[in-house]
Structure formats: C-alpha cells, structure tokens
Design brief:
alpha+beta; DNA-binding; 3-stranded antiparallel sheet; globular
Length: 165
DNA sequence: ACTGGGTAAACAG
DNA sequence: CTGTTTACCCAGT
C-alpha cells in the first residue's frame, strides 16, 4: 500500500493505493497512523502509481468543482462484500447534479426493502467523492448521513447546485 | 415531532 | 445461531 497526499482548494486529501488501484480516499484532517504497512516492499510499481495519482488528482479536482471527471483511476474494492460492491457500482451511475434515494438504489439492485442496508454500504464506501455517495439522499429529499461529516455532504452537493431539505 | 414495526446486511460472540 | 448496530422507510399518533 502506498499513500499519496493530494492538495486541493478544500485541503489535503490522502489517497491509498494497492497494486490493483485506489483503495481508499481520506478527507483532509483525518490522520491515519498506519502510514507504512510493513508488509515488505510495495507491490505497486512507480509508473502505475504516478499515472493513477495524476488521474485521481484530476478527478478529485473536477468533482470538487461540480464537474464530471474525465476519467477515474482503477478502484481496489477487494475489501468490500459482494453487496457493497454492487451498491458502490450503482453510485458511479449518478451524474453530477443528480441524486438518488437509498431506497431507489435498493430497487435498482432489485432488492427493494434493502434501503437501510444500502445506507450501511454507503457508510462503508472507502472512496468518497470519486464514488459519489454524497449524491444519495434519504426519502423526501432529506439529507441523510455522511461518514465524512454532513458539512462535507452539503458542500459537495451545493457545488452541484443541489440543496436538500 | 416522535414512535413503533418492518426491513436487509455486517459483525461480535 | 442470536443479538446488536446501522448514512432507511412509512404509517400512525
């Protein structure tokens, strides 16, 4: 695992890469102590890392600007369950300025009634912003929750001209 | 505004 | 397997 910091207007994000791609993205101010995994030499090559970092930084910048990212880095979702990966994949289908409710996601996955489980899966999303869990609202356009803090959710949405109740 | 029952998934033990 | 927790939802007070 390799960590790379990404400076933006909104602060310094931290990206964590495995040999398969971007595994985690952290908001500014969320210090993690496990900075160096002592599991031998990192398996992610320098050339991959530089390419992925550039793509991640550009995508992050674009989303913080309320725009659609031109391209995304590969994601390493190996830590997630099958259900969580399905939810996260569905989130990627929501464009900037659009929102979906937790139950709409559940229905789209042909598992209506799983709205609450969808909420849990969103909370477990290791790559916020790029995997836009901030575009998922509760029923009736209410804000719902956000692992990075509701102020971030409001900020990201307002940048896309969305104002929840 | 608050409560209760229903629901699905992850996790600890 | 049971109990607990969870970024939910809806119909009643």
């Amino acid at each position: 695992m390799q960590t790379v910091t990404i400076p933006t207007e909104q602060g310094e994000f931290t990206a964590v890469y495995s040999e398969h791609g971007l595994a985690r993205l952290e908001f500014p101010g969320t210090r993690r102590l496990d900075r160096n995994s002592a599991t031998g030499p990192s398996k992610v090559t320098e050339s991959k890392l530089r390419r992925w970092s550039a793509t991640t930084a550009a995508a992050l910048e674009q989303i913080l600007d309320g725009k659609k990212p031109a391209s995304l880095p590969p994601f390493d979702w190996s830590g997630g369950t099958e259900f969580q990966r399905c939810v996260w994949a569905e989130l990627l289908r929501i464009g900037p300025g659009r929102t979906k409710s937790y139950s709409e996601i559940a229905t789209a996955l042909r598992n209506p009634g799983a709205a609450r489980a969808v909420g849990s899966a969103c909370g477990a999303n290791p790559i916020p912003v790029l995997v836009p869990c901030h575009r998922v609202l509760a029923a009736g356009g209410r804000l719902g929750g956000f692992s990075g803090g509701l102020d971030w959710k409001r900020r990201l949405l307002s940048r896309e001209n969305v104002t929840p109740k």
